[in-house]
Design brief:
Elements lengths: L8 H13 L3 H8 L3 H8 L7 H11 L5 H18 L11
Helix pairs in contact: 1-3, 2-3
GO molecular function, one term: DNA binding
InterPro entries: Cro/C1-type_HTH (IPR001387), Lambda_DNA-bd_dom_sf (IPR010982), Toxin_antidote_HigA (IPR013430)
Keywords: DNA-binding
Length: 95
């Protein structure tokens, strides 16, 4: 189990992209043509970044298509590891 709680991709979106660039939630929602509540929920860690939203975010910030998709997948896997705890280490390999 990790010694830290994984950081939700929405927090990274807010702190590493939106805030430094002065981009509001409203402006981002309009730029990528999604409802404002979607951005609000993402940046507050209450909603995952879907493939659709990830592709839109990548285009808006000039990133690779897989940037946000991979970040969300990594977060999901890390959270699953935290949730499974010691159960994961008790699984024996069958191959």
């Amino acid at each position: 189990m990790p010694d830290f709680m994984p950081t939700h991709p929405g927090v990274i979106l807010l702190t590493e992209f939106m805030e430094p660039l002065g981009v509001t939630q409203y402006r981002l929602a309009k730029a990528i043509d999604v409802p404002l509540p979607r951005i609000h929920e993402i940046v507050h860690g209450r909603r995952a970044i879907t493939a659709d939203t990830g592709l839109r975010l990548s285009r808006a910030f000039g990133l690779s298509d897989m940037f946000w998709i991979n970040m969300q997948a990594r977060y999901d896997a890390d959270m699953a590891r935290v949730g499974l705890g010691d159960q994961l280490s008790q699984i024996e390999s069958i191959a």
